[in-house]
UniProtKB/TrEMBL annotation:
Its EC number is 3.6.3.31. PANTHER family: SPERMIDINE/PUTRESCINE IMPORT ATP-BINDING PROTEIN POTA, SPERMIDINE_PUTRESCINE IMPORT ATP-BINDING PROTEIN POTA. GO terms for cellular component: ATP-binding cassette (ABC) transporter complex. Pfam families: ABC_tran (PF00005), TOBE_2 (PF08402). It is an enzyme of class 3 (hydrolase). GO terms for biological process: quaternary ammonium group transport. Residues 4-234 form the ABC transporter domain. SUPFAM superfamilies: MOP-like (SSF50331), P-loop containing nucleoside triphosphate hydrolases (SSF52540). This is ABC-type transporter, ATP-binding protein. PROSITE patterns: ABC_TRANSPORTER_1, ABC_TRANSPORTER_2. It comes from Desulforapulum autotrophicum (strain ATCC 43914 / DSM 3382 / VKM B-1955 / HRM2) (Desulfobacterium autotrophicum). Keywords: ATP-binding, Hydrolase, Nucleotide-binding, Transport. GO terms for molecular function: ATP binding; ATP hydrolysis activity; transmembrane transporter activity.
């Protein structure tokens, strides 16, 4: 069921519309991520959800009732900021105990709960240490423990890993997901990092320019972006102008014929988007045997990225495409010719309305 709902939220910052008619429902126990570029409004939306900002219009609903008139400190929500905001004059135990003290819990309850939190974040022996004795990763875990200690009904995380280096972020992301799964607390978190969002979220809410573009599971979002704004944010740049050939069930482009898996638009006014995972290198003689769903060109750049290689190809008509190729695939060198087959279920069509349509799953 929907535990927390932001309903038709609007918010202006002077003449600038920071949030435009945003509706977002969060299920009980779900982890949902607000993902988007800097300045898209995701942190403002989080602050509205927490009660730190008042919207110009709309409602904030928790467990079926409006909480607009309830002050932030009475909502029993936990919030963790990017800089962690730990108290330097308190040791680790007292930092974690702070929220419980504000709730005027008994000392025995505080001691028991803080001990539980230290165990949860694997810092059992750190209670008497000072904040300045901790590494960045340890501080992040203390901040999370302090957020969870008062048993909040909902947790909000604003770029919780943003101040850490990449290697530490990757390691702590798994810890963060494990802890949130153990506690089963409903969570909204903000990030601009796609990898972070795809790894941690049950659902992702893509935002651009103060608007929600798509809310979906990570897998469906990646494979079925709903519009050009989402595709562009995800880095999908392989657009080809062309025309529908309804008689032959294909899409005609300067690069040749493309036949989709199941869907072909009726209107001619559309472009073709090839998703970055849809290409595979093949030998030249196999490429010439194919009559559709193929591309050729010269390797403009190769970027090895661990689990994949980003292959940038320039075609004979100077159009540039970028594909993600598994590193086990043998690739030509920069400047050499490359021949690619295109998977039919990696094709999407962009209409005049800016929306993408594709195969059976879209």
């Amino acid at each position: 069921m929907d535990e927390f709902v932001l309903s038709h939220i609007c918010k202006s910052m002077g003449a600038y519309g920071a949030l435009t008619d945003i509706t977002l429902a969060v299920h009980r126990g779900e982890r949902i991520c607000l993902l988007g570029p800097s300045g898209c409004g995701k942190t403002t939306l989080l602050r509205v959800a927490a009660g730190l900002e008042q919207p110009d219009a709309g409602d904030v609903i928790f467990q079926g009732g409006s909480i607009m008139k309830i002050p932030p400190h009475r909502r029993n929500f936990g919030m963790m900021f990017q800089d962690f905001a730990l108290f330097p004059h308190r040791n680790i135990f007292d930092n974690i105990a702070f929220g419980l003290e504000m709730k005027k819990e008994k000392k025995a309850v505080i001691n028991r709960r803080v001990t539980q939190m230290l165990e949860l974040v694997n810092l059992e022996d750190y209670g008497h240490r000072r904040v300045d004795e901790l590494s960045g990763g340890e501080r992040q875990r203390v901040a999370l423990a302090r957020t969870l200690a008062p048993s909040p009904d909902l947790v909000m995380l604003d770029e919780p890993l943003g101040s850490l280096d990449r290697l530490l972020r990757e390691r702590l992301l798994a810890d963060l997901c494990h802890i949130l799964t153990q506690t089963r607390v409903t969570t909204i978190f903000v990030t601009h990092d796609q990898n972070e969002a795809f790894a941690a979220a049950d659902r992702i809410c893509i935002m651009t320019q103060g608007q929600v573009q798509q809310i979906d599971t990570p897998e469906h979002l990646y494979n079925h972006p709903e519009n050009l704004a989402v595709a562009d944010f995800l880095g999908f740049q392989n657009l080809i102008a062309g025309a529908v050939d309804s008689d032959h069930g294909c899409f005609l482009t300067p690069q040749g014929r493309f036949v989709p898996d199941a869907f072909l638009p009726e209107a001619n006014a559309c472009d073709l988007l090839i998703l970055p995972w849809a290409a595979s290198p093949i030998p030249e003689h196999e490429w010439f045997k194919r009559t559709e769903n193929r591309l050729s060109g010269r390797v403009l750049d190769l970027f090895f990225q661990g689990s994949m290689t980003r292959l940038v190809v320039k075609t004979a008509d100077d159009q540039v495409f970028a594909f993600d190729i598994p590193p086990r695939k043998k690739l030509p060198r920069q400047g050499e010719a490359v021949f690619l087959k295109i998977c039919s279920d990696g094709l999407r069509f962009l209409g005049k309305d800016g929306r993408l349509k594709g195969n059976k799953g879209s």
